[in-house]
Amino acid sequence: MSQPWVPFDDRGLAYGDGVFETVLLHDGQPVLWQQHVERLLEGCQRLMIDPPSPAALSATWQAAPTVGWEVLKIIVTRGSGGRGYAIPDVAAPRLMSRRVPFQPDSSAWSQGVSVRICSLRLARQPRLAGIKHLNRLENVLARQEWQATDYREGLLADNHGLVVEATSMNLFWEQNGCIMTPTLDQCGVEGTLRAALIDAQLVTPAQLAIDEVAAVDRLWLANSVQGVWPVNALWTAEGAPLRRWGAPRHDPLQAVAHPLLGYPATS
Amino acid sequence: MSQPWVPFDDRGLAYGDGVFETVLLHDGQPVLWQQHVERLLEGCQRLMIDPPSPAALSATWQAAPTVGWEVLKIIVTRGSGGRGYAIPDVAAPRLMSRRVPFQPDSSAWSQGVSVRICSLRLARQPRLAGIKHLNRLENVLARQEWQATDYREGLLADNHGLVVEATSMNLFWEQNGCIMTPTLDQCGVEGTLRAALIDAQLVTPAQLAIDEVAAVDRLWLANSVQGVWPVNALWTAEGAPLRRWGAPRHDPLQAVAHPLLGYPATS
């Protein structure tokens, strides 16, 4: 499949100086598009990158009509130039995108997934928290902690011991009938599905210590591409079992989240 | 000038999944080459990237004979592929390089420079500390804090208030006749000149609170490309003067460092 290329001196390559989005397309139409645009613009503003126009962003998916599910990846970099870390006086940001076919894992929706806790602790950097920037080595290192396919994801805490997210998904938990998700003002990525669920007043940001995650009533991982995965088993980084959760008849998170994505709720 | 390009799915662009080096060339010969190779290999090992061969690395400067100073930039990325943050089963790392002419700033050697303290505080991530990886948004954001050319650099502390480095140089200070440089086990880049000066037993790693930096007997910034810049004035992030230092006849750091780089010591 043809794809765009960037030169050696692009600052996205040189420094991770840019942001990206991963957008679910259903029959050629983007899902949660407004949330993706808002996060991308927020990221550009935080990094002081001149943002692409709404029309240029929409052009990334308006090209060819398709049927079924795809994932659209969009990258915006500050472009080339500058002297070292100093940005160019007049920067010309690059907007690039690519679409690939996608098949959601519906068995994870109904049967749930097994996850482990990562050893790596995320650093706290409020200047970069929340946005989907291109500095993702912590996620890459965390994802290298396991190869076994029986773990579908790894949970990440920050270096104060607070739960943040999974390597590529947001985290949600239920306690006393309330559904909560970690506050992400120190690190982590504010997922677009997470934002939509907070807007829908289904979910409340809160803090959860990694030592208390095994005690919650329910645990889920979710993002705007994969949908909602109930967690059915939690393991330590050393491979010891920490907790199992049953599969209740009704899933209140999927019931709200999956219609937002065009996915069926499994219960 | 022609330069290499990387595809959209290169992990260096996607995640900053790689390392780089910036090497001074003198008449076509690399300066502190062994230190650059060692740091690059250490970076690859920490990120679990299959390292380039010594012959491939040397080929980046063995091509064309030149006269004078150049800067050689080398980038190694993990290459393309993988599923999201998960690395590919068989990765094919990319090695790229580019040479550009360079002129060191000899007036900064003799007259010293004016620097400011940055507002941004570096996050502490021991898994990434020391290596010259491609996740450099903190440096980019810090460098955006000022435009005035009368500040040549900005000092960075970590979020515990300890001095780490400048945005693109290491920091050295003298107190009671000893020359020290910040320990870099939590964040920061271990410069190759810094490594050579520690090996030469001229410099000792130590801790220094940002609140105490104005009280040191001397302060320098240095790296393997620019050489050693004595700091002659220090300013707060808000632009208030903190300290001025005189220009003593003998500079003990330049006296050892500049011969290592092929630069003259100014005293």
TrEMBL record, chains A, B:
Pfam families: Aminotran_4. It comes from the Bacteria. Keywords: Folate biosynthesis, Lyase, Pyridoxal phosphate. It is an enzyme of class 4 (lyase). Pathway: Cofactor biosynthesis; tetrahydrofolate biosynthesis; 4-aminobenzoate from chorismate: step 2/2. InterPro entries: Aminodeoxychorismate_lyase_IV, Aminotrans_IV, Aminotransferase-like, BCAT-like_C, BCAT-like_N, Class-IV_PLP-Dep_Aminotrnsfr. One of its GO terms (molecular function) is 4-amino-4-deoxychorismate lyase activity. It catalyses: 4-amino-4-deoxychorismate = 4-aminobenzoate + pyruvate + H(+). Its cofactor is pyridoxal 5'-phosphate. The keyword Lyase applies. Its EC number is 4.1.3.38. NCBIfam families: pabC_Proteo (TIGR03461). Belongs to the class-IV pyridoxal-phosphate-dependent aminotransferase family. Homodimer. This is Aminodeoxychorismate lyase.
